[in-house]
Amino acid sequence: MSNQKIIFPLDKNPDFINDLRRRVDGYFKDNNLSKYGNKTIVFQSVFMGVLYVLPYVLMLSGVITSVPGVILSWVAMGGGMAGLGMVLMHDANHRVFSRNQTVNKWLGKSLYLLGGFPPNWRHQHNTMHHGFTNIEGHDEDIAPVGFLRFSPHRKLFKVHRFQHIYAWFLYGLMTLSWVTMKDFVRIKNYKNEGVAPFDKKYKSYLTDLIVAKSIYYFFLLVLPILIMPVGWYWIVGGFFIMHYISGLILTTIFQTAHVVPSSAYPLPSDEGKLENNWAIHQLLTTSDFSPKSKVLSWMIGGLNYQVEHHLFPNISHVHYRKLSQLVKETAFEYNLPYHSQETFFKAVAGHARMLKMLGRQVA
């Protein structure tokens, strides 16, 4: 990633975000609400946790022993894994699940249960993605492996011409890359780039990473193989299915918010300065979808309100539906864009069109 310092002009059009923050603060004050999570997120987390853990317990306890039952259990765990990540882990690592920061700290470690590594995720997501959305060389979410091109500023290869077809198959491999090599590559890259605290605590982080991965593999692969009365290949296959389902869900949800036709990919000047301030930059690079679907929003932890999340990552997702109208109205008052797709399917279709465009166009 680039070491260029990015500068958002603080003195350019500050009225929008200042006014919006006043309105949002007023909403919480007038309704006597906390900006943190509430009983809704607790129920969501319990539901997703049960969906992830219960099938595993039923398999290991001998309640589920048939091959079809085992495969269906891994399928359910894939949905629970994705849901737990979007609902609990995401808010906790943004420190907004609870007002109590000790609770957030420990719940943020739920990423270990999903095969990930919390320190890596917080730097990649909270610092780089939220801080420098869709900026080439800074946002790792638009810098996948060479088979995929998510930015018009990346090198175009002939294979990209077909990425709108094969990308969906690769998306399912996302969490599998977490549990195999990606976290090891990231931690080493962050050390080499001098990212604090990875540069000072690399050996400590590496030890934690190795221990965490070892424990994860023991409980999710070794123990089931030793205990369950089915062939080891069914366990390995189920493990793959779980991660594939989770990866496909997570990648699709996140990419439909940023890699779509309405998204901008601003480039900084040679001095690192961008044209717009940070808040307007978020409006230009982010899109909502399915704003009227309460069920979908509940299932994916409010991540269909990505505009609101990027403007207010310090507020729990349980409030985004109500805040979306404030954000939309304020943006329009200041003649600023507010991107939103009516349904999830339209958002997916938009992402597919963008993949096709990026597979053919050079910046």
From TrEMBL:
<dbReference type="Pfam" id="PF00487">
    <property type="entry name" value="FA_desaturase"/>
</dbReference>
<dbReference type="GO" id="GO:0016020">
    <property type="term" value="C:membrane"/>
</dbReference>
<keyword id="KW-0472">Membrane</keyword>
<feature type="domain" description="Fatty acid desaturase">
    <location>
        <begin position="71"/>
        <end position="340"/>
    </location>
</feature>
<feature type="transmembrane region" description="Helical">
    <location>
        <begin position="70"/>
        <end position="89"/>
    </location>
</feature>
<dbReference type="InterPro" id="IPR005804">
    <property type="entry name" value="FA_desaturase_dom"/>
</dbReference>
<protein>
    <submittedName>
        <fullName>Linoleoyl-CoA desaturase</fullName>
    </submittedName>
</protein>
<dbReference type="GO" id="GO:0016717">
    <property type="term" value="F:oxidoreductase activity, acting on paired donors, with oxidation of a pair of donors resulting in the reduction of molecular oxygen to two molecules of water"/>
</dbReference>
<feature type="transmembrane region" description="Helical">
    <location>
        <begin position="164"/>
        <end position="181"/>
    </location>
</feature>
<keyword id="KW-0812">Transmembrane</keyword>
<feature type="transmembrane region" description="Helical">
    <location>
        <begin position="41"/>
        <end position="64"/>
    </location>
</feature>
<dbReference type="InterPro" id="IPR012171">
    <property type="entry name" value="Fatty_acid_desaturase"/>
</dbReference>
<dbReference type="GO" id="GO:0008610">
    <property type="term" value="P:lipid biosynthetic process"/>
</dbReference>
<feature type="transmembrane region" description="Helical">
    <location>
        <begin position="215"/>
        <end position="236"/>
    </location>
</feature>
<keyword id="KW-1133">Transmembrane helix</keyword>
